Amino acid sequence: MSAIHAVAAGFYPTSSVVINISNRTVSKLTVGGAATATYTIDNDGTVRNHAGTNLETWLGGAGGIAANYEVRATLTSGTTPTSGTLGSWLNCGTDRSWSNTNNAQDGSTITSTILVEIREASTGTVKDNASIVINATSETPF
After folding, report:
1. How does pLDDT run across 6-16, given as a tens digit for each residue?
2. Counted domains in the chain
3. How far is CA 45 from CA 54, 97, 117, 132, in A?
4. pLDDT tens for each residue of 50-87
5. Residue range(s) defining the domain that contains residue 118
6. How far apart are CA 71 and CA 129, in angstroms?
7. Distance (Å, rounded) from C-alpha 102 to C-alpha 111?
8. Could you tell me if 65 and 91 are in contact, meaning their C-beta atoms sit under 8 angstroms apart?
9. CATH number assigned to the domain comprising residue 119
């Protein structure tokens, strides 16, 4: 059987897209200034932190297009993030970020725990989810 006939008969998948996000904590500690910790679902298929560090690939495999997926963040505990949209499905064709900024300079930490879900935009089927902790700590200057 040729590959074309196999696909038509349903023997081969038409897409090998893999959606995967992991539970994680992103933290930023600053002494004598504002601390901003950020978690970003990037439209290039990666997850990044406030420093731009690639934490993982959320969109893998062949044929994956970020704009075909949506992300939603829901606060599960702690403080509402100082930036980022909660409770709405947002298209992944644009970078989506959630941050905490702490200006206190008193040793305090602002913590948010959010549930991040990624779904297929066309079907509404959730493909993966993860619990994300965002910590921003601003220490007293010396």
Report:
1. 444 444 445 69
2. 1
3. 10, 13, 14, 17
4. 999 999 999 999 989 999 999 999 999 999 999 999 99
5. 3-139
6. 9
7. 10
8. no
9. 2.60.40
Q: What is the dihedral of CA 78, 79, 84, 90, to 10 degrees?
A: 40
Distance of CA 113 to the CA centre of its chain: 12
Q: How far is CA 96 from CA 42, 50, 88, 105, 118, in A?
A: 6, 12, 12, 27, 12
Q: Residue 81's closest CA among 89, 73, 93?
A: 73
Retrieve residue 91's tokens.
């298209």
**And the tokens for 138?**
């601003």
**Which two structure tokens, joined as six digits, stand for 18?**
């893999």
Measured distance CA(113)–CA(46) in Å, rounded = 20
Interacting residues of 10 by C-beta distance below 8 A, sequence separation 6+: none
Q: Which pLDDT score, from 0 to 100, does residue 142 have? A: 74
- Given a cut of 90, whether residue 47 has pLDDT beyond it is yes
